[in-house]
Amino acid sequence: MRDHHIGLIVPSSNLTMETELPRLLRAREAAEPADRFVFHSSRMRMKHVTPEELRAMNAQTERAALELADARPDIVATACLVAIMAQGPGHHCTAEEEITAVLHEQAVHAPVVSSAGALLDGIAALGAKKVAIVTPYMKPLTRLVAEYIEDAGVEVVDALSLEVPDNLAVARLDPQDLREHYKRLKLGDADALVLSACVQMPSLPAIQPVEDELGLPVLSAATATAFRVLTELGLPPLVPGAGRLLSGTQVGAPGK
């Protein structure tokens, strides 16, 4: 059995990423018992999803990366999608490079992924050129997310904002409600559905059922992050019951 140590950088009020990502990889352990995943987290203070608090949280990245470096992780994932996307198109590359530099200073040469970059990679791996998205954000932040995705060459054909500004309240949203929410989107031209463009909004129990109902690939920030983590570790992206992206049949390769 091989242990893979995964470092997570999460907002202090995030309750979901440390639930959904381990749940995904525990399901993979059941299917592929040769690999085991161990998690280590560092937190950055943020309670409300506002531009001001997101900027203040981003300023804590170096400290969080230093703390994780002491655990000598095999990979580091920074998991606040909107905090990165709100800084402008392509910022996930800058954020990943900043964390990588901190790790290298501590002689840690682990790959770094972000939920923002992972979502783009997941969409690309599915071959999708047009997507619809569901977010918990207020409409101005959802527009920033849509613009970020479109800057990467993917058309956002429709977007639904649930408009929940309190980050803890986002974590309390019932993921089963997404099975109805997605029906409010115009999906006729979509190649894929991003059921949760947020690592704090729970969606995992709805991913496979919605994909089965809709007949289109369904992914989330969490499943896309799991996809990137697995591929960066050199492991097949196979998690049963978590949508086509994690079916182990993808031909697309994640990009930087």
What can you see in these coordinates?
- The chain has 256 residues and is of the alpha/beta class.
- It has 2 domains: 2-115 and 222-242, Rossmann fold (3-Layer(aba) Sandwich); 118-221, Rossmann fold.
- 42% of the residues lie in helices and 19% in strands.
- It has helices at residues 17-31, 51-58, 61-69, 81-85, 91-105, 115-125, 139-151, 167-171, 178-181, 204-214, 221-232; strands spanning 2-11, 35-44, 75-78, 112-114, 130-135, 155-161, 192-196, 218-220.
- The strands form 2 sheets. Strands 2-1-3-4 form a 4-stranded parallel beta sheet, with helices on both faces. Strands 6-5-7-8 form a 4-stranded parallel beta sheet, sandwiched between helices.
- The protein is globular and about 50 Å long.
- Catalyzes cis-trans isomerization of the C2-C3 double bond in maleate to yield fumarate.
